[in-house]
Write a structure and sequence with these properties.
This protein is an alpha+beta fold and 169 residues long. The protein folds into two domains: 90 residues, no CATH class; 72 residues, no CATH class. Helices cover 26% and strands 34% of the residues. The protein is built from four helices and eleven strands. The strands form three sheets. It has a six-stranded mixed sheet with strand order 2-1-4-3-11-10. Strands 6-7-8 form a three-stranded antiparallel sheet, with helices on one face. The chain has a two-stranded antiparallel sheet with strand order 5-9. Strand 3 and strand 4 form a beta hairpin. The protein is elongated, with a radius of gyration of 21 Å.
Length: 169
């Protein structure tokens, strides 16, 4: 029987150790494979070797990943991951960005300097929107550019938390 570590090596993926404990404490330690480029790739490896696709989480400083449970799609991201005062835009938002994000605010400024600062910040958001691909989002904080992220991903890190999709026996 092929071990999960050997499968990870054969598929050029990453072997990690996991725990069933939600706090990262070693409990029912089990190997897993992460590092997939797509959910389809995870499905193919799982099917080929009779493995199960799961969601994993690991806090910075933990040695082990926590097995959260079975998952049936890539990890979904949005501005909701960040908290209040964050917003998201997709590439299609470039079409109505001026009307929705700038035009109605123009009368809110008392001086030219504040208006110019507002427009420069919104222009930066717009320029980022023009660069992104279909599977990406531009995240803003209080109207200012913050980050560009994938809508769907197989792994990401945010605020000391690391998330990944993996396969286990």
């Amino acid at each position: 029987m092929t071990t999960i570590k050997a499968i990870a090596n054969a598929e050029l993926l990453t072997y990690v150790e996991t725990t069933s404990a939600w706090n990262g404490y070693p409990e029912a330690v089990q190997g897993a494979i992460i590092g997939f480029d797509s959910f389809k790739q995870a499905e193919e490896v799982a099917k080929q070797y009779g493995l199960k696709i799961i969601s994993l989480e690991k806090l910075d400083g933990w040695a082990l990943w926590h097995r959260k449970g079975e998952i049936f799609d890539a990890l979904q991201r949005s501005s909701d991951d960040y908290g209040s005062d964050y917003n998201q835009f997709c590439h299609q938002d470039t079409k109505f960005f001026y009307e929705n994000e700038i035009k109605h605010c123009l009368g809110d400024f008392d001086n030219l300097d504040d208006l110019c600062t507002f427009i420069e910040k919104r222009k930066m958001v717009f320029e980022e929107l023009e660069k992104i691909e279909e599977n990406e989002l531009v995240i803003t904080y209080c109207g200012n550019y913050y980050d560009t992220i994938k809508k769907e991903t197989m792994a990401y890190s945010f605020d000391t938390h690391n998330y990944a999709i993996g396969v286990v026996e």
